[in-house]
Amino acid sequence: MKKLYLKNTHSKKHTQDYRKYFALNRSVAGFNLKTKELIYTLVCDKSDGAFVYDIDKNEYIDLTMGFGSIIFGHNHIPIRKEIELQLTKSWSVGPISPLAGKLAEKISTVTKTERVAFFNSGTEAIMVALRIAKAVTKKKKVVFFKGSYHGTFDSLLTLKNNPETNIAKESIPGVTQSILNESYLFEYGSEESLTFIKKNKDTIAAVLVEPVQSRNPSIQPLSYLQELRFVTEENDIAFIFDEVITGFRIGLGGCQEYFNIRADIVTYGKVIGGGLPIGVVAGKSKFLDALDGGFWQYGDDSSPMVKSTFVAGTFCHHPLAMATSLKTLEILNLSNGKLLHQLNSVTTNFCTRMNTFFTENSFKISIINFGSLFRFIVPGRYKKIYSQLLLNGVYIWEGRNCFLSLAHNEEIIAALEEKIKLSCIQLVENGIIKTKN
Ligand code: PMP
After folding, report:
1. Which tens digits make up the pLDDT trace of 336-379?
2. Neighbouring residues of 214: CB distance < 8 A, sequence distance ≥ 6
3. Which domain does 425 fall in, by range?
4. Could you tell which of 149, 250, 266, 276 is best to mutate to test the pocket of ligand 1, judged by most ligand atoms within 8 Å of the CB?
5. In terms of domains, do 217 and 96 share one?
6. What backbone phi and psi angles, to 5 degrees, belong to 309?
7. Statement to judge: residues 374 and 228 lie in one domain
8. pLDDT tens digits for 235-255?
9. Which amino acids bring their CB within 6 angstroms of ligand 1?
């Protein structure tokens, strides 16, 4: 793989030159002494449509697409123009942007949620969703599931549990056991989780799911989600859908629409921000009212009726993010969600063609998808495919979630397929993998 780091000389040099100052965990992801020469992050200073360009002037078909935040393609002109327009008008942080209320109304309509609040990231949205669930139910515990990722909020930041109690178990430095003690971690889809929730209904405030987990997109557990909905509804437990990835991607109404299940609280991020930072908490007034006391009006004796908790953030509902979000929604709405559905079937067809190629050529590799989100399933030595793809001009980040965007047209997808095939063949030629046995 010497060829690869020769291709990425400047990215590698950049990583080395700034390591002393720039503490970046992605520059050490997957560190191994044997392959350390290949451990660096790609540094890109240009992007356009489905492509990113690194500082060595190499072009890559981007399958990372802003970790799934870019649905129209990089540097999409209507989004760019919206930012430029806001810049010429100037903006303020402090007073509320006239765009924020409008965006809340539009998201509420499209997602069939009653109220909407804005934060800066998916992590923040999850943190707030759990806080209001606890505030409203007046209970303390949270159930979440193995295989999901909900950002970096401490009380969800582990993949391990105590097998006897199911209490989440500390597994990384700095996330201490005491902060995990109110979180229960279960196998996604397990009967055990349903039994536990019923049995502990008086202490459980929320059940949090990534309805289709980005790390396991082929698991789309309709009946389990229906059961969770039933059990939570019966027992005054907030059912939270984390739709930071699936929201505004699988369809305009996200997984709620896809599975025809209404959650109590839904979190969004990524796509809706149009490339700028955003986190959204939406859902039933019963829960969202815990942010501001609920609806009241001037000119009569109405007043906030609900005791509120506290949330805040310097950059929440930043005018630039409100503008790009409104534009994103406007474009997606214009097609009534058709653009997203087309992208889903384009992705499924791409995955089917690739899987046929893998099977016909006895490559022990496959691709699974949920709409336009997909992942390669690669055993052992096949993991070298990622470096080979990078060498052949395909960029996939270290977390390996891949996304197609509306900028990945037929021609680009055909080129992508050729690059994937070539990468597999080269791995065989280089003696890294055998196809059969
Ligand atoms: N929830 C899900 C399902 C996610 O995939 C992510 C991020 N990939 C988050 C929450 C956290 O979002 P952010 O990175 O914006 O904090």
Report:
1. 999 999 999 999 999 999 999 999 999 999 999 999 999 999 98
2. 68, 149, 245, 373, 375, 401
3. 2-75+338-429
4. 149
5. yes
6. -90, -165
7. no
8. 999 999 999 999 999 999 999
9. 67, 121-123, 126, 149-151, 210, 214, 242, 244-245, 269
